[in-house]
């Protein structure tokens, strides 16, 4: 599939190198515009329906994160291209699809573009239709420790789990339970069932997902109407559960 993209980079030489690499090694990318500043990039974002933005971090009169804060409901994916590795955490927090270091490694560039292409295609395939999971069922039971013993819970009754420091909230259709176990514990305990870690704070029963929404990293709506954020790094894995 074709990916409409823009390059946001203040150095003309760097833009030229990336443009040439994309033309030669990533023919699925259609570069529809280039910007050397935050202001120019915003103009392009308003002008085009984009799938992908290649974004340098440090630019005159602002940085990449200033730009992204001004586009809260974006549906495009972002690949950061920078000479600085200490922005990786901020990039992750802004739901970047990939983080490329300068000088650009061609293999990594191809991998980044391929990753975005798979995600965008899956999003397009899922658009405007009822979601049906190809995951196995979640029949089984889970024991939850309590002060006076333990409670047995049907795994299928769990909609999602939410991290709360060293505790985890277990959300059922009509109620929630607070358990003194980490989310990592439940991720491992439910590893043989159809549960996906979609975010550092959420583990979701994919059979209870009724809607996927595009956005920064995307989000899912579960059967009780609750909307949960999806991290960009987890999006591909989540979408793989659906036909």
Strand order, largest beta sheet: 2-1-3-6-7
The count of β-strands is: 17
- The ordered H/E elements are EHEHEEEHEHEHEEEEEHEEEEEH
Shape: elongated
Number of distinct helices: 7
Query: For this structure, what is the CATH class of the largest domain?
Result: Alpha Beta
**Roughly how many Å is the radius of gyration?**
20 Å
Reported by name, the CATH topology of the largest domain is Rossmann fold
The proportion of residues forming helix, as a percent range, comes to 25-40%
Weakly predicted, low-confidence segments: none
Gap from first CA to last CA: 18 Å
Task: Give the overall pLDDT as a whole number.
Answer: 86
Beta content comes to 25-35%
* Major sheet size, sense and barrel closure: 5 strands, parallel
Write the CATH architecture name of the largest domain: 3-Layer(aba) Sandwich
Q: Which structural class do you get from the secondary structure elements?
A: alpha/beta
Structural domain tally: 2
According to CATH, the homologous superfamily of the largest domain is Response regulator
What would you call the quaternary organization? single chain
Task: Write structural notes for this entry.
With 243 residues, the protein is an alpha/beta fold. The protein is built from 7 helices and 17 strands. The chain has helices at 12-25, 38-47, 64-69, 88-93, 106-126, 183-189, 232-239; strands at 3-8, 29-35, 52-55, 58-59, 62-63, 77-82, 98-101, 141-146, 149-154, 160-164, 167-171, 176-179, 195-199, 202-205, 209-213, 219-222, 227-229. Strands 2-1-3-6-7 form a 5-stranded parallel sheet. The protein starts with a strand and ends with a helix.
């Amino acid at each position: 599939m074709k990916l409409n993209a823009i390059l946001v980079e203040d150095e003309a030489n760097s833009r030229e190198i990336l443009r040439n690499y994309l033309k030669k090694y990533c023919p699925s990318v259609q570069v529809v515009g280039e910007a050397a500043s935050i202001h120019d990039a915003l103009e392009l974002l308003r002008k085009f329906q984009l799938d992908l933005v290649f974004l340098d971090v440090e630019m005159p009169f602002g940085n990449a994160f200033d730009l992204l804060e001004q586009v809260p409901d974006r549906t495009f994916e972002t690949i950061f291209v920078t000479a600085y590795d200490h922005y990786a955490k901020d990039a992750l927090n802004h739901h970047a699809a990939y983080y490329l270091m300068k000088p650009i490694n061609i293999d990594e560039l191809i991998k980044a573009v391929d990753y975005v292409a798979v995600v965008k295609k899956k999003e397009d395939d899922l658009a405007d239709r009822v979601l049906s999971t190809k995951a196995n069922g979640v029949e089984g039971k889970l024991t939850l420790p309590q002060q006076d013993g333990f409670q047995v819970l049907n795994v299928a009754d769990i909609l999602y789990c939410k991290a709360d420091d060293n505790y985890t909230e277990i959300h059922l259709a009509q109620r929630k339970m607070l358990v003194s176990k980490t989310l990592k514990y439940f991720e491992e305990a439910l590893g043989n069932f159809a549960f996906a870690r979609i975010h550092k704070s959420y583990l979701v029963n994919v059979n209870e997902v009724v809607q996927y929404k595009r956005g920064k990293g995307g989000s899912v709506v579960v059967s009780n109407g609750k909307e949960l954020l999806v991290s960009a790094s987890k999006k591909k894995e989540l979408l793989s559960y659906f036909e």
